[in-house]
Design goal:
mainly alpha
Length: 108
């Protein structure tokens, strides 16, 4: 049996880009938003049934969302879920550093 040496390199900060997935930045942003939703639900110690009522979703939808199945959700819908959880969402558009394309960030 031959052993293969793994090639290790610095990631881009976006696992979806590193995996070569199309629309990687959108996937990353959705994952960040879902992570915040999950964190709020856990911090409040909400049961999925209670979170579902608060979010206007079914319990199975909350379960899928918490397991990372968010492909069918738009960014706008995820932002609305955050506001339903009592979070303000600010979108700030500013000029990027010279010579570099703009980037998306999620801050708390």
């Amino acid at each position: 049996m031959q052993s293969q040496k793994a090639k290790i390199g610095r990631g881009s900060g976006n696992v979806f880009t590193d995996l070569g997935l199309p629309d990687a930045e959108t996937h990353w942003l959705k994952a960040e938003l879902v992570t915040r939703i999950d964190r709020i639900i856990r911090q409040r110690r909400l049961k999925q049934v209670d979170a579902a009522k608060l979010l206007g979703l079914s319990q199975p939808d909350v379960s899928r969302l918490m397991r990372g199945d968010f492909r069918e959700y738009s960014i706008e819908r995820l932002l609305r879920l955050l506001t339903a959880l009592g979070r303000d969402v600010d979108i700030i558009i500013q000029e990027s550093d010279a010579g570099r394309p703009g980037q998306l960030r999620v801050e708390t």
